[in-house]
Amino acid sequence: FAPGSQPRREYFPARNRIISGLSFGTIVVEAALRSGSLITARTAAEQGREVFAIPGSLHNPLSKGCHRLLRDGANWLESVDDVLHAFGDFRRTLEDSPALSAARRPDDTQGLLAHFTTGINGLDDLASRSGLPMTELAEQLADLELEGRIKRVPGGYSRHRGLA
User: Which of 25, 54, 76, 154 has the CA that lies 20 to 30 A from 85?
Assistant: First the structure.
């Protein structure tokens, strides 16, 4: 939709289809039985993407959508290990790729921190400055975020104050 377009209810399914199409997987944290999250999960499944759902309390109405997804075959999600397990073969394929092996630097997240500037660092800027393939960049950013060295902010990432 053109910049400045007003958000309208009928736009959300198309937007969600685009989002799920650009993603390797969709994680549903909470969803009522009638929700946009379930629409996104359905379109992700139709596009051959992985769908993950986090189980919740049987008494919480916002867990009912996740429970339905799990019943219908979504991946159970309790930790990042569940996601890594689902994409394990994909990650090995990428790591074995000769093109990526040549471009890949050693697993040195400190090196990536050297490419951070003051303020917000956009994903495209970090990819350009570091020269890392997007898959490797995303992996290193996730590691740095889990270590508490950076944090995700609107528009990108910033160094966590007081840490490397």
Answer: 154
pLDDT digits over 67-106, tens only? 999 999 999 998 887 887 787 765 555 555 554 444 444 4
144 and 113 in contact (C-beta within 8 Å)? yes
Domain covering 88-159 assigned CATH 3.40.50.2300 in the classification = no
Does residue 52 contact residue 26 with C-beta atoms inside 8 Å?
yes
Q: Where are the domains of the chain?
A: 9-79, 88-159
Q: Do the Cβ atoms of 23 and 85 come closer than 8 Å?
A: no
What is the Cα–Cα distance from 60 to 57, expressed in whole angstroms?
A: 5
Residue 93 pLDDT: 54
User: Average per-residue pLDDT in the chain?
Assistant: 83
Burial 85-116 (b: 16+ CB within 10 A, else e): ebeeeeeeebeeeeeeeeeeeeeebeebbebb
The pTM for the full model equals 0.54
Cα 131 to Cα 59, 92, 116, 139, 156: the distances in Å are: 48, 21, 13, 14, 17
Cross-strand partners of 121? 157
